Amino acid sequence: MARRSHGDRRKTILRAAGRLFSQRGYYGTSIRDIAAAIRLQGGSLYAHITSKEELLWEIVDEAAQAFLSSLEPIVRSGRPPAEKLRLAVAAHLRVVTERQDEAVVFNHEWKALSPRRRADILARRDAYEALFREILQEGIEAGVFRADLNVPLITRFILTALNGVAVWYRPKGPLSPEQIAEAFADWVLRGLQTCEPPETSG
């Protein structure tokens, strides 16, 4: 049998760490816990990592990249605002459901990072929220979303609801990620859209 490569071993370690951080929290998980999950001695784990925080950083960093890279093309696509928002909801939920443990860790454990890394993640979280706000503001300016919307508040409301899916979603549950995304987008758009279509010139 071929020996497992260093890269494969590291992926296994990251998956185990992500699962444990998601279930127990960063501070509730020890290096021994992670090692035991993949049947290694605690000391042997340091042949593959330098610290527990390094694992947290890689998990959170990859999740941040996944969220941003899924949303940026949608915002820049030139599609109508309502379609952009529907696609943004679906993209966010795709990351949440495909990277469920990572999403939980990203949303709840990032504050355990060192100050420099925490600042980096906070900046990327802010950039991600700004993209959602851009979609909402574009819809207001186009006359398809209500003019009285509190854009920062609505953005936080949408993202909080979407992030919560990572806690209760089950791959073998009654709803697929696509069905959940469609339902969420319908609910959100009903609350955002104006009653009258925007006027067109000519």
From TrEMBL:
This is HTH-type transcriptional repressor KstR2. Pfam families: TetR_C_24, TetR_N. Keywords: DNA-binding, Repressor, Transcription, Transcription regulation. GO terms for molecular function: DNA-binding transcription factor activity; transcription cis-regulatory region binding. Residues 7-67 form the HTH tetR-type domain. InterPro entries: Homeodomain-like_sf, HTH-type_TetR-like_transc_reg, HTH_TetR, KstR2_TetR_C, Tet_transcr_reg_TetR-rel_C_sf. It comes from Candidatus Thermoflexus japonica. The lineage of its organism: Bacteria, Bacillati, Chloroflexota, Thermoflexia, Thermoflexales. Residues 30-49 bind DNA.
